[in-house]
Specification:
Blueprint: H1 2-21, H2 39-48, E1 56-60, E2 65-70, E3 74-79, E4 83-85, E5 89-90, E6 95-102, E7 108-114, E8 118-128, E9 140-150, E10 158-162, E11 169-173, E12 177-183, E13 188-190, E14 194-195, E15 201-207, E16 211-218, E17 222-232, E18 243-252
Parallel strand pairs: 2-9, 10-12, 11-18
Antiparallel strand pairs: 1-2, 3-7, 4-8, 5-8, 6-7, 8-9, 12-16, 13-17, 14-17, 15-16, 17-18
């Protein structure tokens, strides 16, 4: 029994270690509030770690999240208490970290003020916290949040284009949304719509196929092109021509 117990223990340790290494990715930030949230609101909040507010709008939930914030307002972010986080820093004068609160349970709340029109990125690095006496893997995380400061959430607009708008120039302001709706014959398929400059026009959602669609948000002043290619499903066996759909987008502050 003594001879077999050691390999079993070693195998258990290996399995436990692999469980840590291949565990599915979880959100870098989670929300803790005393007030109950709807299922949808709780999902959005837990995905981005941002407390719901009438002065902000989450436009992309994939990490790093992107949100629009009204000029002159503030918002609160709560970071995952399973990590020891450094105080977040801002990449822009448009955003300022005004308050950092740490609780005894390692919960860190961050208050951020939107001071000027524009965009910025909040970042923080966190080291994993393990119970005393336990082996702790040297894991760290980078938390990131993209923020666009707009004049008013109510004044942002949505511009919808179709394949009939091919070659058109579209004027947007920071915070506005561009929606693509492309339709074609069933024997053709559109590629996934893309942006030529994600720093100016960022794809939030995109679907390819005979009917393709996409939602893109203007996050900074500049120029970008949204494109998709409609190609025959029989290609390359057949030589049916493809067609390019493109709209040029000019984003102003």
């Amino acid at each position: 029994m003594r001879r077999t117990s050691r390999p079993v223990q070693a195998s258990a340790c290996v399995v436990a270690l692999l469980g840590v290494l291949i565990a599915p990715s979880v959100s870098y930030a989670t929300l803790r509030t005393s007030a109950p949230l709807s299922v949808a609101a709780a999902h959005v909040a837990s995905s981005c770690g941002v407390a719901p507010s009438a002065t902000l709008r989450i436009v992309a939930q994939r990490e790093p999240c992107t949100l629009d914030v009204k000029l002159g307002s503030s918002f609160v972010v709560v970071l995952d208490p399973g990590f020891r986080w450094a105080a977040p820093i801002s990449s822009s004068n448009s955003l300022k970290v005004t308050r950092v609160t740490r609780s005894s349970s390692n919960r860190m709340s961050v208050t951020v003020a939107a001071l000027a029109l524009g965009r910025g990125t909040l970042t923080s690095e966190g080291a994993m916290i393990c119970p005393a006496g336990q082996a702790c893997p040297a894991l760290a995380r980078l938390w990131m949040l993209h923020v666009v400061v707009v004049r008013s959430l109510a004044t942002t607009k949505v511009v919808t284009v179709t394949q009939l708008d091919n070659g058109r120039h579209v004027a947007l302001h920071v915070g506005d949304e561009l929606v693509l709706r492309l339709v074609g014959p069933s024997n053709y398929a559109w590629t996934t719509p893309v942006s030529s400059n994600a720093a100016v026009l960022r794809v939030l959602r995109a679907v390819r196929g005979s009917t393709a669609s996409a939602s893109l948000v203007a996050i900074a002043p500049g120029v970008a092109r949204a494109t998709s290619i409609d190609t025959a499903r029989c290609y390359p066996q057949c030589l049916a021509p493809s067609r390019l759909f493109a709209v040029d987008v000019i984003v102003s502050p």
